[in-house]
């Protein structure tokens, strides 16, 4: 009988806490969203499974010495995984639409306003006693507004690793919800006539332009803002491999095998931060709410910037493409195109929206560099 009692005491069923039980359900919810609802499955599935592993009592998978602990330290604690993801994203990116219509860079820049507005909001709510975020934590939360998962993880690992789990879940969840969150904001801020605006076909961009651009972008930004160099450097390197045409094998590896392998370990490592004691806090609710506000402000800022540009220019842009200034590539561009087609069946905005969409990736990396440079 004593042996049976000892066996029972050593089981996870005996040792499980209410918090761990809740987080097991959260992990299963993330798996449901990934598998059934197909919300960012490439990340939410490993994150959800990592959350389940991390909250199994007495398994010690996510604590010091556990396998997920090592995944986190090696890949996220060092900043390697987000940078490798950025290299793969760069290898899949086409700067052509941005180069063909450079003024869309302003739309990508405007969409980053959500990041800085949310930082101020987090500080305000901390000042009045609603939340308890430090300046570094507020900056890490604000990056959610860029709708760029790897950048959010990179900044959180540098400035607020204790909030990384909640920030990563919020960031990827809102990226998955782009088709639901953005259209109401876009329609609220535009008229039917504005949504019908047809844009001229983009000019053809030469290969030389595409090769020179990532190199010049990196040099110019890195000289002014060195802390943005890691993210933009890997992004530019991935793109240069693709556009140069001389390292197709390397480009293909970065776009497929490498980014897929890293995504697996990145998701599991993020899941290791979803342990009950660190995730089930009032601050997590604040992160989710502030992240939503950041994303909404970023979307609205891009649309409003497009409207301002139309007041100052004869060549009108469809304000809907401003919403693609957030970094959710290419989902935000597809949403702009979809809403445009609803207003005008002959209005194909996808390639036009890819300009601000790519600019948003650049903008979020620069915003991340600013946060790290001044706060790390």
Mind explaining what this structure looks like?
Helix content is 73%, strand content 0%. The chain is built from 21 helices and no strands. The longest helix has 31 residues, at 282-312. The termini are far apart.
Strand composition percent:
under 5%
Order of helices and strands: HHHHHHHHHHHHHHHHHHHHH
Rounded average pLDDT: 90
Helix content: over 70%
- Overall, the morphology is globular
Secondary structure elements and pairings:
Blueprint: H1 2-9, H2 12-15, H3 18-35, H4 41-54, H5 67-77, H6 80-91, H7 96-100, H8 105-110, H9 113-127, H10 135-142, H11 149-159, H12 164-176, H13 178-189, H14 192-195, H15 207-224, H16 229-244, H17 248-271, H18 276-279, H19 282-312, H20 331-343, H21 350-375
List the main descriptive attributes of the protein structure presented here.
21 helices; about 75% helix; about 375 residues
Please provide a brief summary of the model.
This protein is mainly alpha-helical and 376 residues long.
């Amino acid at each position: 009988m004593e042996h049976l009692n000892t066996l029972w005491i050593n089981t996870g069923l005996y040792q499980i806490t209410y918090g761990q039980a809740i987080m097991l359900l959260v992990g299963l919810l993330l798996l449901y969203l990934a598998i059934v609802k197909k919300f960012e499955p490439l990340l939410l599935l490993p994150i959800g499974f990592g959350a389940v592993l991390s909250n199994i009592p007495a398994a010690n998978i996510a604590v010091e010495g556990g396998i997920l602990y090592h995944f986190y330290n090696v890949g996220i604690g060092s900043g390697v995984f987000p940078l490798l993801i950025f290299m793969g994203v760069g290898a899949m990116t086409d700067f052509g639409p941005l180069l063909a219509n450079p003024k869309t860079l302003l739309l990508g820049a405007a969409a980053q306003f959500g990041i800085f507005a949310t930082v101020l909001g987090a500080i305000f709510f901390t000042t009045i006693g609603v939340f308890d975020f430090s300046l570094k934590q507020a900056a890490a939360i604000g990056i959610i507004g860029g709708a760029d998962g790897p950048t959010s993880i990179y900044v959180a690992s540098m400035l607020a690793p204790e909030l990384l789990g909640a920030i990563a879940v919020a960031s990827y969840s809102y990226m998955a919800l782009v088709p639901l969150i953005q259209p109401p904001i876009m329609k609220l801020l535009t008229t039917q006539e504005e949504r019908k605006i047809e844009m001229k076909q983009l000019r053809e961009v030469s290969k030389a332009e595409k090769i020179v651009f990532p190199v010049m972008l990196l040099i110019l930004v890195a000289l002014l803002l060195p802390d943005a160099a890691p993210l933009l450097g890997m992004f530019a390197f991935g793109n240069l491999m693709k556009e140069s045409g001389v390292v197709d094998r390397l480009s293909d590896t970065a776009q497929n095998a490498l980014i897929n392998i890293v995504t697996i370990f990145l998701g599991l490592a993020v899941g290791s931060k979803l342990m009950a004691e660190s995730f089930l806090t009032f601050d997590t609710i604040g992160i989710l709410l502030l992240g939503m506000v950041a994303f909404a402000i970023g979307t609205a800022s891009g649309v409003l910037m497009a409207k301002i540009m139309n007041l100052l220019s004869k060549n009108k842009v469809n304000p809907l493409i401003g919403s693609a200034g957030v970094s959710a590539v290419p989902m935000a561009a597809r949403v702009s195109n979809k809403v445009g087609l609803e207003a005008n069946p002959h209005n194909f905005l996808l390639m036009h929206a890819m300009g601000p969409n790519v600019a948003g990736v650049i903008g979020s990396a620069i915003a991340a560099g600013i946060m790290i440079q001044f706060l790390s």
